[in-house]
Design a protein that fits this description.
The chain has 212 residues and is mainly β. 5% of the residues lie in helices and 63% in strands.
Length: 212
């Protein structure tokens, strides 16, 4: 429900699109990348350990598939605002735990080049980099019945600065694709991964209302 509320301001703007220049809603497919911080977590005690020691599991790189939801409102031909929510749909192994990373951004938008069939879009804003952790365990009654459960164990939230650049190409009057490169900078993200800077590559597919 909270995720759906992120779309509310843009959905309200659609009803008054003719008073604005343009409204876009889009979904993205891509990946974000970061290295491991080189630390280890003991698989039995969940305490810090040195990777390579018995029972010590090294923390992972950040990679894998990210799913994005976003949109923007262009109040003038070249200027507007928008948001993006990028998340790992599937958790990845993080030592004995499982993790899920997400980035939430509110951005100012500048389109320096606007043509009928394409435009160049630059974004800059702030938001939150979030890493949530869960622990899964299985239990069996002999060999007949087994069950598994996953329990949330904590979340790490970091302020982040976001910049992005993409080229939006019109496929039809309303449908577009936008390959985009982003960079997230989140101080103290090295508590979970190897760098505070996280590059991300995404292809957005969206629906456009209004003029270009």
């Amino acid at each position: 429900m909270k995720k759906l509320l992120l779309f509310a301001p843009l959905l309200l703007c659609v009803s008054s699109v003719y008073a604005q220049n343009a409204v876009d809603l889009n979904i993205g497919f891509g990946s974000a990348f970061d290295s491991s911080n080189g630390q280890g977590i003991d698989g039995s005690t969940f305490s810090s350990c040195i990777p390579g020691a018995s029972g010590c599991l090294k923390t992972p790189d950040l990679s894998g598939f990210f799913l994005g939801f976003g949109g923007d409102v262009m109040f003038k031909e070249h200027f507007g605002g928008g948001f993006e929510y990028n998340v790992q749909p599937a958790r990845q192994a993080y030592g004995p735990f499982q993790s899920r990373v997400s980035f939430i951004d509110a951005n100012g938008i500048y389109d320096p080049i606007v043509k009928k069939r394409f435009l160049v879009q630059l974004q800059g804003g702030v938001g939150v980099a979030k890493t949530s952790f869960a622990y899964s365990q299985s239990s069996c009654a002999g060999t007949a019945v087994c069950s598994s459960s996953t329990q949330a164990v904590g979340t790490a939230n970091h302020f982040q600065v976001h910049v992005g650049a993409g080229v939006q190409i019109a496929i039809t009057e309303h449908i577009f694709v936008r390959p985009q490169f982003d960079l997230h900078y989140a101080p103290n993200l090295t508590d979970q991964f190897g760098r505070n800077s996280v590059p991300e590559a995404t292809v957005w597919v969206g629906y456009h209302w209004g003029s270009r």
